[in-house]
Design goal:
Blueprint lengths: L1 E4 L17 H8 L3 E4 L1 H4 L9 E4 L3 H6 L3 E4 L6 H17 L4 E4 L10 E3 L7 E3 L3 H8 L4 E3 H11 L2
Parallel strand pairs: 1-2, 1-5, 5-8
Antiparallel strand pairs: 3-4, 6-7
């Protein structure tokens, strides 16, 4: 089973109530080859919610307590991100996920890049909290950009 970020399957669960639809991912879900998860909702967030970024490091650092996930208004929401990551991990284990495709740049789901914590639309290399935990636990985590490349190569 493949786990995918709910927003990539067209569900309007992003912080601002939108989706990030990827037609390849939507097709996998429709064909029952993938199931959706949203670590932020699993952590207790609602829609809409304030944008948040990791301040002081990456998802790995949030897990060790040396960085924080902060909302635009300054609220520390690290515990909710960590809770959502562990809920996602439990689901990944339950379904024996062979691949996990998460939304790039998210403080939860980014698997190669995240925003830098300054709320100025600047990115740094790094994992979000959920991606960091899943990778640490041995799961293969990629972004929607990488899955689109896979589909492109399969159809050539």
């Amino acid at each position: 089973m493949i786990l995918v970020s709910s927003c990539l399957a067209g569900m309007k669960v992003r912080y601002n109530g939108t989706d990030s639809l990827d037609v390849h991912i939507q097709k996998l879900v429709e064909e029952k080859k993938a199931m959706t998860i949203c670590p932020e909702l699993l952590g207790g967030f609602v829609i809409p919610r304030e944008p948040a970024e990791i301040v002081g490091g990456t998802g790995e650092d949030v897990l060790t307590g040396t960085a924080k996930v902060i909302e635009y208004s300054g609220n520390d929401v690290s515990d909710m991100y960590i809770r959502g990551a562990y809920e996602a991990l439990q689901i990944a284990r339950e379904v024996n996920a062979s691949l996990i495709v998460l939304k790039e740049n998210s403080p939860s789901c980014g698997s190669a890049a995240i925003y830098n914590g300054a709320f100025k639309n600047r990115k740094i290399a790094g994992n979000g909290v959920t991606s960091a935990l899943l990778k640490r636990e041995g799961f293969k985590v990629i972004s929607e950009e990488q899955i689109s490349e896979i589909f492109l190569h399969e159809n050539m």
